[in-house]
Each structure stands twice: as C-alpha cells, then as structure tokens.
Amino acid sequence: MSAIPLATAQGSGLKALRAAALSFAGDPFLLPADETLHYESDALVVMRDGRITAFGSASMLLPTLPHGAEIVRYDDALIVPGFIDAHVHYAQLSVIGAFGGTLLEWLTQHAYRVEQRFSDPIVARTTANEFLDECLRQGITTAMVYGTVHAVSVDAFFAAAEQRAMRMIAGKVLMDRNAPPALLDTAQSGYDDSKALIARWNGRGRLGYAVTPRFAPSSTPEQLASAGALLQEHHGLYLQTHLAETTDESAWVRALYPDVRDYLGVYERYGLVGRRSVFGHGIYLEEAAWQRLFDAGAAVAHCPPSNNFLGTGHFHMAKAKRAPRPVRVALATDVGGGTTLSMLGTMNEAYKVARHTGFALTAAQALWLVTGGAAEALDLTGCVGGLEAGHDADLVVLDLAATPLIRYRMGFCAGVEEALAVLMTLGDDRAIRATYVAGRLAHRRNPGTLP
Ligand code: GUN
Ligand code: ZN
Domain ends where: 354, 377, 400? Predict the structure, then answer.
C-alpha cells in the first residue's frame, strides 16, 4: 500500500534529477583534474526546500528515496552547478555589441549614454526582467551586478531577482566626478542612497549588497572614503569595482593619485580591499599587487568577452594563479562591454585568452571558474557552485546533443573533460536544456516537450 509514502514524498517538496552530473571535490588549479572532479555517469541530485539534500550515483540513492518521489530524468545531458557571472552591468544590456573605440570612448559613447535612462523606474524594471530571463536562458543563477548611479535601478533589480528567487549581489554605482552631470552623485548622497539600499535589501532572502564605486577615476577621495565607511559600518557587505583594465586608465589613476604606489593602492588607502572585494579585470597588475590581493583574500573577475571586444588586453591567468599565492579568480561577462551572457562562451573566450598568454586552461579549470571557484571568489563556498548536499539547489542541465555538430563531436569524446571542452567550444544557450533555481525549474529550453 503506497498511499502514505506517496503523501510523504509529495508533502516534503522532494524532487530528484537523474542524469550524468559533474561537480568538484577540490580546486583544479591546485590539484590534477582526476583528483578534483566529482563525476557520476548516472547520478541523482536530490533537492528539497531549495537545497540539495543528496548527490551521488543513482544506484546508491534510489533506494533511499521515499516511494512516489518525483524523479525527472534527462538523457544525453550533464548536470552541473548553476553558473556564476562575477561582474556584469545589467543596465548596459541595450548597448551590448555597440561598436567602436577604446574603453574610455566606449564608456562615454555607449555606457554613460544608456545608463542615464535608469532614473526611470520603468526602464529599470523592464531591463532587469529582460536581463534576468536571459541569465536563466544561459544557466546563470548567481551574478555580481552593477546598477547605475540611480538607487531606483538597484531597487528594480533586486525586486526582479527576488521574484525569481535568484541569489544575486548588486549595488548602486558611486561616481561623483569625470562623468556626465546626469550620472553624478556626491560623496554624501551616494553614501545615503547606498545606506538606504543596504537597509532595504542586504540579506533579504537570497540578496546581498555590494558597495560599488565605479572605478577610481570617477570617484573623489571623499567618495572612496565614504565607500570604506559603508564597509566598516555593515558586516558582510561586498565591494565591487574596476581595476587595471587598460593602460590609459591606469595612467589616469596615477595622475589623479600621484602619491599612491599603484592602482590597487588607491583602493587599499580607503579600506576597500578585503575578503569580499571583487575587482573587475586586473589585466595590468604587477607582482606586488597580486601578492597584496592574495594577502587580503580579495578576488579578481576575469572578463574575457569584454577584454576581447573592447581590445583592452589579455588577462594573465598564470600570474593570477602563481604559487604560493594563487589569487581567487572568477569568470565574468562584463556585459555590455562583453558581448554575451553565455558562460559557456565566456569559458571559450577565457581558454583563447589563456592561449595568448601561454597558459593551458583545462576544461575542468574553466568550469571551476564559473562554479565552485567563482563561489569561492564571492565568499559563497558551500552555498552555491556545487552539487553536494547542503548547497542551494541551483543547477544547470547541459545538453550533450544540443546541435547536430555537438552531437556528432560528442561521439569522439574520450571522457567527461573532453565533453566539457566540446560544450564550452561549440555551446551556447542552445546547450542549456534547463536551469533550476532553488530547486524550481526556472528555464526550460523547449517548453511543452518532455525534459
Ligand atoms: N570601467 C569603468 N566603468 C566601466 C564599465 O561600465 N565597463 C567596463 N568594461 N569598464 C569600466
Ligand atoms: Zn565592468
């Protein structure tokens, strides 16, 4: 008689996914892939109340499920943790792929022009919805996001993320100089607006706040000091900003802060470099700065789609990961400077940038940089970025037969690492068969069909 166990399974909100699955038992930058990959060719990922409660071989776990538990089976698929985009400007979605110019020209012609529209809450709301739906189509379940200078841009973003129950980190841009007047705040108003946003959103559900001075050239020393004060006054906040993306920008910072030892030193002076600080780009950093980033436990968001599109340079993975001081690194799209929200595409571009610098990025390392390693960079280890029990049930079902060419090429793969390399080389949103957020199916590539 199955009535009671069936009721138990349904009442518990328990659900299991069955497919091949891949997670990490360690950092593939520190250990060989075969010691760090946690691969199950026929896995069960069991989820309840938004969390993963078990991950392992189906043969081991099936007998432990209550009778009648819902099991969704995916063939020709690989389940991985939900992807993390560690640096992205949601308000720049409408200038993605806007051609022309150097970084500073692109900012003026495109980014600063479109960001002025975000004083309008309707623009902010519609863009936030569009952005987050595209994230889900690309398998992104967590991101570290720049709003604009307008507080309303962050209210709209967090509200849209909350509706989707996504784990998101975001903040209002602080900039009080060297930008169009319509985009300027003041040290005081930026502080006050940030404080109010922190009170409204930080720690609410799955949301976290990042103090967000845009970059050193667009903030006065007073504003950077106020950003440091916000971090002091609230435990557990994040800090996000840009660092050493181009040589022109670095020279500008030297001219603005002639008495500081280097670009990172400006942020250090104002107490902005710590365990929850994530610096976008970091292309032009000397060894001393890498060492200080490591000492502080800070992270760098490597944004290859943006660096390639804007022609800003090649990130040096070998320098970032140099022993004995490997710096925490996450991959990021940097949309709209970046040209895609595909994290598979971003892994592909990271591989190619690494080749340019003589670094052989493995597929396991690339996946780590958008899952477990990115979680580490965002100080979210054990919370997101893995499939093991206790993690949030954020995951992606990758399609191993997403296109005719992918299906064909998979026939020549020797193992899961090669299959992953094929997906990151040939894959895009067509390879995202499903995205789960907190255990709920949030995106299905082919609605109306079986999984
Ligand atoms: N540096 C300062 N602001 C920005 C921005 O919006 N995009 C990029 N790529 N670099 C920046
Ligand atoms: Zn950026």
Answer: 377
